[in-house]
Amino acid sequence: MKHVSKRLMMGAAFLAMVASVPAAFAATPNDQLIIGTSLAQVLSLDPQQGTEVKTQEILANVYDRLVAFDPETSELFGELAESWDLDDTGITFHLRDAQFASGNPVTAADAVFSLVRLFKLDQSAAAGLKTFGFNADNAESLITAVDDKTLRIDFAEKVIPEALLYRLANGVGSVVDSVEVLKHVANNDYGNEWLRTNTAGSGPFVLNRWSPNEIVLLQRNDKFWGEAPTMTRVMFRHVPESQAARLMLERGDIDIANALTAPDVRYFETQEGFAIDQAKTGGFYALAMNAGREPLNDPKVREIIAQYGIDYAGIAQTIVGPYGRVRNVPAPEDWEFAIPNPNWSFRPEEAKEMLAEAGYPDGFTLTIKTIAQPPRVDMATAIQANLAEIGIKVNVVQGNGADIVAQHRARDFDLLIPQTSAADPTALGALDNFTNNPDNSAEANNAGNFVWRSDWDIPELNALRVAANSELDATKRGEMVTQLQEDFIASSPAVFPMFERFEPVVVNVRVEGYDAHPWGLTRLEGVTKGDAN
Question: Which residues of the chain are under the pLDDT cut of 50?
């Protein structure tokens, strides 16, 4: 996986650009970092619950995980784990000396508590690690503390060790202060109600204030085990209007903007004093179709919509821009084992004929739901216009993150535009969201699973995915990954990628050391700021 960066401004070029910022504009303090973003999807700060992209950058800075990976190279390295040993049956982690913000020492027991808690809560956040056979019943026997500084994770089934490490590098692998959290347990909730709005971590910052859809304010953690952050404060400001964020960035009211529309990102390509950092997430903007509802339960109808009814090229050019590129295969095109894209394109006359043959000469009406956030709102409007041309009337319903995510998890939609991230930075990891559904029954209530949410039963695809995840021979695994993609494309999928998802971030060049992470887990302890003129 590659991380594309345009931030090549250093030395004299950096000084020249800083000097070019108009003196009349304001400037944020040198010891404070202010990020203009959308906080609409920040629903919980509990690291074993909150999985939304904009939540991850907050969690990444108040918590540590056992391991993390470099956004440029995808190389794994230790955060709380100084080292680890692999054997045939599991992984042994050796922890560094560290303190939580409370002053309590970080121990292997805290790591056990955190990971077991993930499975006991059994929310959507646990889905990625449940893939490897861990669950609420076996977690306590498989995840154990050997001593205060040694953690042992035994495999639940045959797995690729590197893949498990990458899953632990996600935000759900954050280690919480068990002593502090246990003080706030109510009604056997594992401290969830308290951790939704409070933090108990060992990261470089601590939560000072969270006002939903307004600000999240982090304060430097003086007990952080690593080098002390230069920033005394980090503020995430809710700026959902792209034009407002653009103006604030130009004025110097914010240092970074990461929720701009494509045109506003492009605007900064020609503006001195700013740089664009573009992280390739390994995930996608997808279209979910509810296969449990007529007429979307008809594979032919799904095929018509996906393969003939959407102008991917046009939407990419006019809307997506720096946010991604056309991709209908659920593995990024430049990753190992990825297959070429199929020829899915906008062919309205063919689509109308095929709909008539499928029994819908007069079309039908659907709703498409989306979070009111760029670029998904504009995607929904474009898809509405495309499908109107083939005889399908679509009503667009916008909502906040809480509403739309809840409706997605409840199978309460016709069409919906979610976004995904790769479970790990490999083709197999990217495929997980689209081929993982071990039990499609309503009773399974597997709301953390994208395919389950679309009520799409895929026993053959799921079985091949399981086999690939337990194949230790890389060549054989690659063959399975190729077959998995081909079978997916041939299956008239009910949830499929439309665009490979990038995350463009516009940064004032005063800011140094900001390196956008593919999963949103951007650490800020190394960020510094130059003087403003």
Answer: 1-25
d(CA 449, CA 459): 14
Contact 302, 493 (CB under 8 A): yes
CA distances from 132 to 158, 258, 304, 461 (A): 8, 33, 35, 16
Q: Give 506's strand partners.
A: 257, 276
Angle, helices 427-435 vs 459-469, to 10°: value is: 150
| C-alpha span between 234 and 47 (Å, rounded) | 19
Q: How far apart are CA 440 and CA 452, in angstroms?
A: 6
- In degrees and rounded to multiples of 5, residue 263 shows phi and psi of -60, -35
228-255 tens-digit pLDDT: 999 999 999 999 899 999 999 999 999 9
Phi, psi at residue 461, to the nearest 5°?
A: -65, -45
Tokens of residue 211, six digits: 């006002």
Q: At what angle do helices 459-469 and 474-489 cross, to 10 degrees?
A: 160
Structure confidence at residue 516 (pLDDT): 92
Q: In 3-state terms, the chain is what percent helix, strand and coil (to 5)?
A: 35, 20, 45
The CA-atom distances, in angstroms, between 368 and each of 40, 254, 307, 487 are 19, 34, 18, 26
Question: What are residue 99's DSSP bridge partners?
Answer: 105
Q: Which residues lie closer than 8 Å to 244 by C-beta, 6 or more apart?
A: none
Euclidean distance between CA atoms 345 and 361, whole angstroms: 21
Quick: pLDDT tens for 4-30. Answer: 333 333 333 333 333 333 334 468 899
CB 472 within 8 A of CB 327: no
